[in-house]
Every structure is written in C-alpha cells, then in structure tokens.
Amino acid sequence: RRTPLETTTITTVDHHNSTWHEFENLLDTSKGSHVSGISEVKKYLQRFGYLKFSNTSSSDKFDNEFEVAVTRYQRKLGLTVTGNLDYETISQMTLPRCGMRDTLPPLKFHAIQH
Amino acid sequence: YNYFKGKPRWSRAIPTTLTYAFSPNYIVSNLKLSDIKVTFRQAFSRWSAVIPLNFTETEDYGFSDIKIGFYSGDHDDGEPFDGVLGVLAHGFSPESGKLHLDAAETWAVDFESEKSGVAIDLESVATHEIGHVLGLAHSFVKESVMYPSLKPREKKLDLKVDDIEGIQELYGSNPKFNMESLSQSDTSSSN
Predict the structure, then answer these.
(1) Which of A19, A77, A96 sits opposite B140 (nearest CB)?
(2) Is the distance from CB of B19 to CB of B58 less than 8 angstroms?
(3) Which of B81, B86, B89 sits opposite A20 (nearest CB)?
(4) Interchain contact, A19 vs B82, CB within 8 Å
C-alpha cells in the first residue's frame, strides 16, 4: 500500500493592516508558547483595555494572564472563545479600528492556590 | 451599548445646538473641503434625527463645541496615530469635543472614484466618532455603528437600535423620531 501524500495546509490572514500585520506570524499559538511578537499583542490588548500592565507584559510568553485577556477579547468581540490566537482572532486584531479603548469591567486577576 | 466611565454627556439644557468646526490647519489633501463638510453634515444629521440635539457648522474653530481635524502621528493628545490603517480616528468623551482623524488614511467619500484597496469610508468613521463625542463608548453589537472596527471599503452608516437606545438614554428622543420607522435590518441586531 502506498503511503498517502503528506498535505500541508497554509492559512493566511487578510493583510489589512500595516500596523498590526505581524500578528499573522503568531497564528495558532496557545498557552505555554514562547514566540517572538507576543509582547506586541500584549501591548495591543493593554492599549484597548483587555490586559492589565504587569511585569510580564514585555515578555513573549503566552502566559495565564495573556490567555485570560485573549479570552476576554474573543468574548467581547463576538468571536469563538478558544483562548488561542486562532485565525478568527488574528483577523479581528488586524482590522483597522477606532483608537478609543473598549469599555470593560475593571480588570481583576485573582491568585488561585493549587 | 456602553458609556464612558461616569457616563458623561453634554450638560446643557435639552434641546440644544452644538457647534462644530474644521481645523483650518489640519486637513487632508486628497479630498475637497466641501466634500468633507457635506460628509460630516450627513453624519451629524444621523444623530440629530434620533435625539433632541442639533449641530451647526461654524467658522470659529476656537470657540466651537466640536473640533474636527486630520492629524499625523503624535499630535499632542497622548494618542498618536500610526500611519496607514491600524488606528483610524478617535473621538473624546463629553465635553471635550475633540474629533481627530488619521491624516495618513486614504479617506473616501465615494468608492466609485476612490479605488484604493485601503480606502476608508469617511462618513462611517465620522458617524462613529460623533457617537464618542456625544458620550457613547464602544458597543459589541457587530452591526452597530459603535462597534470598534471597520474594514477598508466597508460602509456602516445607519444607526442601529443599539446605537439609538444608547444615545437616547443620555439625551432622550427626538420628538419626531419613531423607532418603528427603522427598517428590518436596523432592528434585527436587537432581536
């Protein structure tokens, strides 16, 4: 029996935006990833009110706080809530938009003891 | 719909008239000023149709309630623009009256004559930013004018029920306005 040919799916995001188009390089990253450029998405989420500034804000680690922020963003913008930087989320982030912050309830992060 | 913190609004007695003016120094070159003025007049009229506020243009920029200008990059309000696309504009909460548009965008008043793939509809953005100037924050109803994003070559002009209910909670209803006169598509988002 012949081995099926390996197929590769290439997903691209519409390149709408010169400011945030590099977010496309982060497609499908999820918690635990450490990818150059995540700090830029953190800045985006801080700017528009989804992520509180913290001492991990400048790191490229996809940490817990970042996942919570991505989830908040997805929920508020009416996207599928995955907590990951999926195609739908990256596409939304790269759209041109108003510069005013999105109005959200105050950010609260609770320490959870495991 | 949402409001800014403290739910600010223009505090003068209703009904009232707010004046607006265009900065004589910060305009864009790819559009005629007369076209920009017509576009903003239409955008203001969408809001005045539903609330008891009128808007009138004045040449006296310094004393106008609402000050409109096209700015590039850092323009000293703490919210620098970022070039083509990205952030398109911002309008500040009452009673600041500042309405700023990014001069780097390819602003369009007519997509028939403006063929650029990154053209942005001026009237859609003007209508959205006027909503901020009047006191509405971003809505997360996708069809609403106050939703935060807009694609290039997209138009979003008509106020939806979400926008109207939000602004009428601040200022009351224009006595001539009838919610039932809205088209099916305007009301579908609230359903």
Answers:
(1) A77
(2) yes
(3) B86
(4) yes
Question: What tokens appear for A44 in the block?
Answer: 């985006």
Is residue A114 very low, low, confident or very high in pLDDT (cuts 50, 70, 90)? very low
pLDDT-derived band at B168 (thresholds 50, 70, 90) equals very high
Show residues of chain A in contact with B151, CB under 8 Å.
16, 95-96
How many cross-chain Cβ pairs, A to B, lie less than 8 Å apart?
76
ipTM associated with this complex: 0.93
**Tens digit of pLDDT for each residue in B144-158?**
999 999 999 999 999
Both tokens of A61, joined, read 């680690």
Burial B105-139 (b: 16+ CB within 10 A, else e): bbbbbeeeebeeeebbbbbbbbbbbbbbbbbbbbb
Whether A106 has its CB under 8 Å from any CB of chain B: the answer is: no
